[in-house]
Design brief:
The chain is of the alpha/beta class. It contains 9 helices and 6 strands, in the order αβαβαβαβααβαβαα. Bound molecules: NADP nicotinamide-adenine-dinucleotide phosphate.
């Protein structure tokens, strides 16, 4: 739907893709996206909730429509933020390379793509589909929570740069002390989640009874 872009939207110089399960989306994600937007002079941040991620059993993750709608509710007030259905509408397992290639087609060759994700993903990236092509097509921004042992990550980033000419930035985001898994556990234990995520998302979780019984 949102991929039917207007001519103006097509002139995006730098597009950041915020990939994640967003189960649920929280202030850590939103602050991260805004920090990356500012730091890298990004014109638009596109939140891309995962469909069926390759690395997770399907039953462990909330329904795609719930995760999509919570992401829309959370991002609607930021004019630089948008949400894509590209992965949740794709049948079968969703791979990041397919999304990146799709967005390259939609936005054109001139648009510089950034992919924002959790730092641990960088350690596993060579196990993703078409990693070399992925590293060629976009700049990665690896974000971490406070207290993350960054030495091995920085070493990995350097190895990938030497081997594949990849561009990977590292960013520590204090507000990522908030985590989706902690929010799910809090809901299950009837503990408060207020101020960890937008009130609209909190109300959505309560209305649909999400996370009453988490698996982890
Ligand atoms: P995850 O395993 O759910 O998350 C791993 C850790 O990173 C969690 O602590 C998570 O925190 C954090 N995180 C994830 N995305 C983040 C983001 N955008 N900003 C800040 N923190 C983030 O990882 P995931 O969300 O499923 O996957 C992340 C992205 O990598 C997705 O776009 C997914 O499609 C992609 N991926 C692709 C492949 C492939 O193509 N083969 C394989 C694996 C992952 P929270 O739980 O608080 O979010």
């Amino acid at each position: 739907m949102r991929d039917l872009l207007t001519a103006t939207e097509k002139k995006v110089e730098r597009l950041a893709i915020m990939g994640g399960t967003f189960d649920p989306i929280h202030y850590g994600h939103l602050v991260t996206a805004e920090a990356v937007r500012y730091q890298f002079q990004i014109n638009k941040v596109l939140f891309v909730p995962t469909g069926h991620p390759p690395h997770k059993p399907f039953f462990d993750v909330s329904h795609t429509e719930h995760r999509y709608l919570m992401t829309v509710l959370a991002t609607v007030t930021n004019p630089y933020f948008d949400v894509s259905r590209v992965e949740i509408d794709r049948k079968g397992i969703t791979y990041t390379i397919d999304t990146i290639q799709h967005l390259k087609q939609v936005y054109g060759e001139e648009t510089e793509l950034y992919f924002i994700t959790g730092a641990d993903a960088i350690h596993q990236i060579l196990s993703w589909k078409d990693p070399e092509e992925l590293l060629r097509l976009c700049t990665f921004v690896a974000v971490t929570r406070p207290g993350y042992h960054k030495n091995s990550l920085l070493k990995r980033i350097e190895e990938l740069r030497e081997q594949y000419g990849s561009k990977i930035h590292f960013l520590e985001v204090p507000s990522l002390a908030i985590s989706s898994s902690d929010i799910r556990k809090r809901v299950e234990a009837s503990r408060p989640i207020k101020y960890l995520l937008p009130e609209t998302v909190e109300n959505y979780i309560l209305k649909f009874g999400l996370y009453q019984q988490t698996q982890d």
